[in-house]
Every structure is written in C-alpha cells, then in structure tokens.
Amino acid sequence: MKKVATRFAPSPTGPLHIGGVRTALFNWLYSKNQKGVFYLRVEDTDQERSKDEYKDQIIKSLKWIGINYDGDEYIQSKKIEDHIKIVNELLKNGHAYKCYCSNEEIEEQKKRARQKKIPYIYDRKWRDKNEEDAPKDIKPVIRFKSKIDGTATLNDLVQGEVKIDNNTIEDFIILRNDGTPTYNLSASVDDHQMNMTHIIRGDDHKINTFKQIQIYQAMKWELPSFAHIPLIHTIEGRKLSKRDKASTLDDYSKIGIIPDALRNYLLRLGWSYKDKEIFTLDESIKHFNLEGIGKSPSKLDMSRILSMNEHYIKNIDENDLYDLLTEYCKLYKSEIKSDKKDKIKKSLIFLKNKAKTLEDIFNNGQYIMVDEVNFNQDDIKLIDDKAKKVISDFNTQFNRIDKLSKETLEPIVNELIKSNDTNFKGVGQPLRIALTGSKFGPGIYDIIISLGKDEVTKRLTNKKLG
After folding, report:
1. 160-192: per-residue pLDDT in tens?
2. Predicted TM-score (pTM) of this structure
3. Looking at residues 187-209, what average pLDDT do you find?
4. 343: exposed, middle or buried (Cβ count in 10 Å: 0-12, 13-18, 19+)
5. Long-range contacts at 291-296 (CB < 8 A, ≥ 24 apart)
6. In the structure, what pLDDT confidence band is assigned to residue 218 with cuts at 50, 70 and 90?
7. Conformation bin of residue 39: beta by default, left when phi > 0, alpha when psi is -120 to 50
8. Of 3, 67, 70, which Cα lies nearest the Cα of 36?
C-alpha cells in the first residue's frame, strides 16, 4: 500500500488565515496518525500578488503552532515547465483545445448570462472548430475539454457521496494566453508529481476537485482520495475572511494565546473524539481521523479560545509558563529586567490566577516589573488621612518582622483592623494602592511577599502618597 502523503498548499498573497491553519493541522495530524508524510507547497504563481513576506509569515505561523512539514517547501513557480508540458500532452491527446474568443466575446457572454440571471458557462465555441479558421491577431488560451454528458460522483471522505451533472463544469482554461498555467492545472500536476494520496481542504474547493479529477482521468493518473472540510464561520454565521479581526495567528499571539491552546481549540473546531476536550500533542496524533470531522460549518468563538487558554495557563508547568511569558514580553511588551526575573517566576503561582492570556499575567505582574509605582489617578484619591495612618502603622509593625509569610503578616493586618476600627478592605485597599498603584490586583499577602521587604518599605514611604 502507498505511503500516506498530504500537503498544505497556501498562496503567499496575504497573511495565513486561521481557516488555513486548521486545514494544515488536519492534514498534518492525518499524515502523522497514518505514519505518512506532510508537505508544504507554496502556490506562488500569481506573480503580481505573491510576496516573500507572506511566504515567511506562513512558514513562521506553522512553526509557531507546532506544525512541522517534511523536507523543504515545494515552490510551485519552479515547476511551471512541468505544468506546461502536461498542457501540451492534453492538447495532443485531444483532452484540450485552443480557444480564440476575444475578451469582448467572453464579456458579452457573461453579460447575457447576468441578464438571464444564470451562472456563466463558456459556450464551447472553439471546442470542435478547425484551427484554420482561427483569427491571426488573437493569442489563444488553452481550455480543457470537460465531459458534457452524464454525472460525476465524488466519494468524499467527509461529505460522503457528492454528485454533479458534468454539463455544469465548463471547458475551463488551463493555460492563459500569456503562457501561464491556471490553478486547477498546476494543482493537479503538483499533486500527481508529489505522490499525494489524500487531498484534505476546505469545501469551497469542491468544484475544483471535480475539474481536477477530470485532468487526472485524462492523464490516466491514479486518483488520490478527497476530503472536504466545512469552512469556519464568524460567531454571527458569516464565512470568516482575512478582513475579520482575529483571523491570523499574529492576532492571537499578540494577546498572549499559547500555541498549544490554540492548536487544541482548532483541533476541536469541527472535529470530535468521544467527549474529550483537552488533547496533548501525542493524543491529537493518536486519535485524529477523518470520520470525526463534522459536515456543518464551525463558528470561531473567542470566548472558547480564551477559556481553553485559561485551562492551559492553569495547568502548564510553571517553568514552561515563565519561558512563554518572557518570550511574549520580549516580542510585544517590554523585556523583563534581570533583577525582576526571579520575583516574577516565584509569583507565577498567583499571577496566573484568573488569567486568560499571557497579557493578563503581564498586567497582573506589572507592579513587580516596574521600578516606580504608576498610580491610577482615581485610586490615589482614596488615600485619605485614615488610609495614610493605616499605611504608616503597617510600615512600623512590618519593619519589626524578619520573615515574610502569611503567618507573620496576618496578625499585623488583624491588629490594624481592630485599632483603626475598620475591616479587611479598609487595610488591604490602601496597602494595595501604595504597593501597586491600583486598588485592583492580587491578594495583599501575595503582593507583599512577592515584592520583598526592602521594596515594600520603599513603596510604603513613597512621597507621592503624601
């Protein structure tokens, strides 16, 4: 039996879209599950719109989410001669023909179709014409001679049996009049030459599949298996596009979504295995199959992504979480200063509480990272004379203790509650504002222990507190 081979074939004409990432993930997991190979093919034949920066972004995105392809990238533009060779073979064996229709003629046909409110299909004018009648001033396109009669059946590994009437497929162009091959021709030749066994892609490609199958049959090539995945929609039910917010991996990376969490979310977006929600990488490979892919579109739900990310933050090894946080700060915030690193690392146990993203952890830990407290202007107004007395009394007693722990701090706070005739908030809030600049933040004991004795004393005697 042939070794399973799949591919992901994006065009570098824009940043890689989240739907593309899921397609790559499903191809990669299927190959890994089947002990096969997975390739990246860069379809860069649209010379005007293809850019190296997008190619680099695609490669970087796949690497970020943990999808590793086999071998080097397969660059489609380097194979154009092979594609043109197949066009000539199709011409020679009677499966293609030269079409001399002018642009005006084609536009006229399209206009008539619009008026009749029917889909435009080329009228096959040059299908059986003699080339001697060809106009000398028009450079022809090459069209594939599609089947006219009968029906075609696709045994789709996700959608089941799909049938269409052959006459709905026009004689599509396989070589433009500037000598460049079109998508359906190039994709078919590449898939054949790369020995693809399974083509797994979005179900917006279904009509292309019927065209490509005809090319395979005309060339007497062995057909791969096809699986069409339903598309991803927005939460409102629209087809997700590159213009949508949070449509590229960079959008998720910037807010501090962990690659493993996003990969787990995308795996479960339109695929299921029993009632399991959380998958390690090994479990993803072990359990992935095409039977688990649903037939309906999936909705991209940001709240589900955040809750998946929160789960990963809560359960990840703290050394790994620290590495992810430092990398995140380096890329999108400010690098954690070397003298603050230990304090941040030790404090992750509570800084990650209720954090849905790495950005939340960064924000929670800001008070440790800064050298000077940045006061929230509304919150500092809460430091009235009573609050100043609480801060001063706390500082006096605080300086008498040697070891910082909840057990040594709690009696001081309780005594202050009593002597100032207040409650826990009446003591905790002024201290929190003095130490972090805000009335919101981690628990007061965690803040004090994380800052250390010298830093707490320095902040409690800050002149800005008045």
Report:
1. 999 999 999 999 999 999 999 999 999 999 999
2. 0.91
3. 97
4. middle
5. 293/26, 293/158, 293/227, 293/229, 293/230, 294/230, 294/270, 295/158, 295/159, 295/160, 295/230, 296/230
6. very high
7. beta
8. 3
For the chain, first and last CA: distance in Å?
A: 81
> Which pair of tokens denotes residue 156?
């789709």
Torsion, Cα of 183, 83, 63, 257 (10° steps): 0
The DSSP bridge partners found for residue 97 are 143
Cα dihedral: 312, 318, 324, 326 (round 10): 150
Nearest to 195 by CA among 309, 70, 289, 33: 70
The mean-pLDDT minimum among 61-75, 101-115, 220-234, 408-422 falls in 101-115
Cα angle: 155, vertex 156, 159; to 5 degrees: 125
Q: Encode 35-63: b = buried (16+ Cβ within 10 Å), e = exposed.
A: ebbbbbbbbbbeeeebeeebbebbbebbe
Q: Is 359 left (phi over 0), alpha (psi -120 to 50) or beta?
A: alpha
Residue-wise pLDDT for 127-155, tens only, equals 988 888 888 889 999 999 999 999 999 99
Contact between residue 135 and residue 206 where contact means Cβ atoms under 8 Å apart: no
Distance in angstroms (rounded) separating the CA atoms of residues 14 and 243: 11
Local structure of 17: helix, strand or coil: strand
pLDDT at position 241, please? Answer: 67
For β-strands 141-144 and 298-299, DSSP reports them as: unpaired
Burial 111-129 (b: 16+ CB within 10 A, else e): eeeeeeeeeeebebebeee
- Among 453, 451, 447, 433, residue whose Cα is nearest residue 340: 451
DSSP per residue over 392-422, as a string?
HHHHHHHTT-SS-SHHHHHHHHHHHHHHTT-
Tokens matching residue 344: 């941040």
Residue 358 makes CB contacts below 8 A (sequence gap 6+) with: 255, 256, 257, 258, 313, 324, 325, 328
Which of the four pLDDT bands, split at 50, 70 and 90, describes residue 1?
confident
pLDDT > 80? residue 305: yes
What the block records as the tokens of 263 is 């990969």
